[in-house]
Design brief:
This protein is an alpha+beta fold. 30% of the residues lie in helices and 27% in strands. The protein folds into 2 domains: 118 residues, D-amino Acid Aminotransferase, Chain A, domain 1; 168 residues, D-amino Acid Aminotransferase, Chain A, domain 2, CATH 3.20.10. Strands 7, 8, 9, 10, 11, 12, 13, 14 and 15 form a 9-stranded mixed β-sheet that branches. A 6-stranded antiparallel β-sheet has the order 2-1-6-5-3-4. Strand 14 and strand 15 form a beta hairpin. The protein is globular, with a radius of gyration of 19 Å.
Length: 299
């Protein structure tokens, strides 16, 4: 078979045949939870961390996935094994799990959920050049959801504010990465990634009140401590970002990616900067893959 196969509601079928009904609440209302991982040299990175977050989110929104934690974990591993016929040497897989509440007209209806587990290739082309040139961040007008309405710790599919932020950023710079502010004007998070700055050798990340608790974010904090690089969590204002020494973003796909411009303002001529270089090197050593070289070769 020359296409990916995926787990869909109890069966393994061609990915192209995975379809939801028009009345599915995940499609109609964004009433769904998802999770994303990737492999390094074919091995899923921190699957336990991602499964923990997936099941926390499901518990919070009260969706029963119809599979246990261990079953979901096994399905993720099996999704990689079943798709090794699509493996490309030097490449890696991106994994996704989607769980919707199903096709009920009301949350009070007891209906089967839709459960999807599948893989694809990591999209290196989007970010490969940025390890050398740095990415561009645009701070969008659209704001992060307030924890009083929808807690950002939930990895959900109600993402219209992210879509609007992407449109706003693309109007300014088509290749930029949009970052949102919280309701108080502090920097919160990007569209599917966490944002960081470095000042005087100290890594600063927003407090997790208004952001997704990124699995990669947690790994970077642990890695920085091992490298004796101080990390603090505090509110970050635009002034702090515009005057920082370095900036970077983290996400499952690209791990650690340097940023060279914020709202069109150059940060430094040294991209990546010394601290970000340490993190990239430390990450590559940790996963056993040169993440910069891999991205370049598969762009």
């Amino acid at each position: 078979m020359s296409e990916f196969v995926a787990y869909f509601n109890g069966d393994w079928i061609p990915k192209s045949e995975c379809k939801v009904h028009i009345s599915d609440r995940g499609f109609a209302l964004g009433d769904a939870i998802y999770e994303a991982e990737r492999t390094f040299d074919g091995k899923i990175f921190d699957l336990d961390g991602h499964m923990d977050r997936l099941f926390r989110s499901l518990k919070y929104v009260r969706i029963d996935p119809s599979v246990t934690y261990e079953q979901m974990k096994s399905l993720c591993i099996e999704s990689v094994d079943r798709n090794m016929h699509m493996w490309k040497d030097g490449h890696d897989f991106a994994l996704r799990q989607y769980v919707t509440r199903g096709s009920g007209s009301s949350v009070s209806e007891t209906v089967p959920p839709v459960v999807y587990v599948g893989v694809d290739y990591v999209g290196f082309r989007r970010f490969s050049k940025m390890y050398d040139e740095g990415g561009h961040v645009i701070f969008a007008r659209s704001r992060s959801y307030s924890p009083n309405s929808l807690d950002p710790k939930i990895k959900h599919l109600s993402r219209m504010n992210f879509a609007l932020a992407e449109l706003e950023a693309a109007d300014v710079d088509p290749d930029s990465w949009p970052v949102l502010l919280d309701q108080d004007g502090n920097i919160s998070e990007g569209v599917t990634f966490n944002f960081w700055i470095i000042k005087d050798g100290v890594i600063i990340t927003p407090r997790d009140k208004n952001i997704l608790q990124g699995v990669t974010r947690k790994t970077v904090i642990d890695l920085a401590k091992k490298l004796d690089i101080p990390v603090i969590e505090e509110d970050i204002q635009l002034y702090d970002a515009y005057t920082c020494d370095e900036a970077f973003i983290t996400a499952t796909s690209h791990s650690v990616l340097p940023i060279s411009k914020l709202d069109g303002r150059p940060i430094s001529e040294d991209i990546p900067g010394p601290v970000v270089r340490q993190l990239i090197s430390g990450w590559s050593e940790m996963v056993g893959v040169d993440i910069v070289d891999q991205a370049r070769r598969n762009a």
